[in-house]
Each structure stands twice: as C-alpha cells, then as structure tokens.
Specification:
heterodimer, A: Ubiquitin-like (UB roll), B: alpha+beta, Aldehyde Oxidoreductase, domain 3, four-stranded mixed β-sheet
Chain lengths: ~80, ~160
C-alpha cells in the first residue's frame, strides 16, 4: 500500500521531513501498527516516535485513534497534541 | 472560518457579520491574545504551525456542531498562523444569536473545542532566544469534555 505521510511540529523536526510517500508492507492495518513500523525506519524515526503515547494521528485529515484502520487511506499525518487557540 | 497570517480587526468582523441583519439580538466575541509570559517564564515571540486542509475542515466541523447545538444566526472563527509577538491577536471567535445565552455558550464551546481539535501547534521563543514547543494542557481537555452530551435518559 502506497501512502503519503505528513509530520508536524516536533514530529516533523525529529524525522527531519514534513512529508514523504512510502510503500507500506502488507500486514500494517492500524495507526498503532504504522507507528511501530515507523519506529524501525532509522534513528530519527525511533526518536520521533519514541513516546508513541503522545503522538496523535489523522487519516485523510480526520483525527484517528491508535486502533483506527488505515485501509484505503491516502494521507496519514502524525503530530503532537494540538496547542492552538 | 479563516486561517491567516494577517491580523484581524474585531469591530470590522462584527460589522461584516451583522451587516443588513435585523434578526441578530446578541453578538459575543472572544479574542485570544499572546501574553509575554507562560508558566512563569518570559516569552519573546511565537510561531504557529498548522495542517493546511485539516485545520479548515476541523474548524468548519466545530462551527457546524455549534450551529446544531444553539440557535445561532451567524458565527465566525479567525485563527492566525506564522510569527506572532506578545500583545498580538491569535484567535477570534464571534457568535451571533437572537438572545444572549446561545451566543455566550456557543462562543465558549467553539473556543474549548478548537483548542483540542484544530491542528495548530505553538512554538515559543524565550527571552534567551531558545525555542520550545508548547505542551498541551490537561485543563483544555477538561474544558472541552464538559460539552459532551449527557447520556440519554432512560424510559
């Protein structure tokens, strides 16, 4: 499955990129599984996703909990808890 | 709903929202401004990052939710992004209704919800020039949580 990943705030700074296209191996079905896979993609990803409990995700621009299915997603974003307002 | 780097002018926004309307009996505005301190530390500036596309859809969603909950004649959210300094405006919420209670409640709801839903992130620059991402506050989650609908009554 090919998907566009986006990173914001300190997740962006730690991965060193704001977006990328990735080919996901079969078997990654949820946001939590995708985070676990990303943690294996190099030291910068391991650091960015080390505190996975504070990472928030959005699938196709809608908030998505760790257990959410990524099937059919075209854009998945990772970011810290929001701090606007 | 607008996301912009430019400042806003509260009076002009009220005038635009209410122009030609004689059905609006109450207008409530909330303006969020940048303070020169946070958690006891001086703050020299701030940059606000957001997720273009998702920000707009989340703000539209919270506005639609407010319109569904209260009888509003009009509403507006303006949120700034980019580099801001102490004293600058950050966010504007305007609600308009026939009577004041809906406008007051909806304005609070919009602020509480956008703080926990809209994908903005603040990075503060301290007086020493060091930058740090602002942490989310549990009190903001609690403030948004009080708007959860009570469970439907049985029977």
């Amino acid at each position: 499955m090919r998907v566009k990943l986006l990173y914001f705030a300190w997740v962006r700074e730690k991965t060193g990129r704001d977006e990328e296209q990735v080919e996901l191996p079969a078997g990654i079905k949820t946001v939590a599984e995708l985070i676990a896979w990303l943690q294996q993609q190099g030291p910068e990803y391991a650091e960015a996703f080390r505190r996975s409990e504070v990472i928030r995700a959005a699938i196709d621009r809608r908030h998505a909990p760790p257990g959410a299915s990524i099937a059919g997603a075209s854009e998945i974003a990772f970011f810290p808890p929001v701090t606007g307002g | 709903m607008r996301v912009q780097t430019a400042d806003f002018e509260v009076g002009a926004e009220i005038a635009a929202l209410t122009a030609g309307r004689s059905d609006i009996g109450a207008v409530v505005t909330f303006t969020g401004r940048m303070r020169a301190d946070n958690a006891g530390q001086p703050v020299a500036g701030m940059t606000l990052e957001h997720y273009p596309g998702m920000t707009e859809s989340e703000l539209e969603r919270v506005e639609a939710e407010a319109q569904a909950r209260w009888p509003l004649q009009a509403s507006l959210i303006v949120h700034r992004v980019g580099t801001l300094r102490p004293g600058d405006n950050i966010v504007l919420v305007v609600t308009a209704s026939r009577h004041r209670q809906a406008a007051f409640s909806a304005a609070e709801f919009l602020m509480d919800y956008l703080k926990t839903k809209a994908p903005f992130w603040k990075k503060e620059i301290g007086a020493d020039g060091r930058a740090a991402w602002v942490d989310a506050r549990p009190s903001d989650d609690e403030a948004a949580g009080r708007w959860r609908r009570p469970p439907a009554r049985e029977g």
